[in-house]
Amino acid sequence: MDRFMEPCILLLVAREPSHGYELLERLEEFGFCRDDVDTATLYRTLRRLEEEGAVVSEWEAGEQGPARRKYTMTDEGRELLREWASIARERVRRLGLFLKGYEGSVEAEAEGE
User: Fold this and answer.
1) What is the pLDDT of residue 65?
2) How far apart are CA 10 and CA 51, in angstroms?
């Protein structure tokens, strides 16, 4: 699921520029349990996306507490997100074929026993 975190982060940042902590909370939308998300993995992914030019960050002074990085999508990030969506569509198609095959044979055999 760590690799799946990348397109989810991209989608969240595309919707709205965000701080890392906000992204951590919003990942629940995609089935990530907050307690199971490794914050180090989240920030490593954000750093890598920034190095690749998919997002940019800037320090934003907090009203209370220390400054935080706010991540914003770039044109390269939008293209990467489109690529991820294409990959996801193809995987959904293949999974559908697998389930159709399973439900049409193995599951039917199990019911017949």
Assistant:
1) 81
2) 14
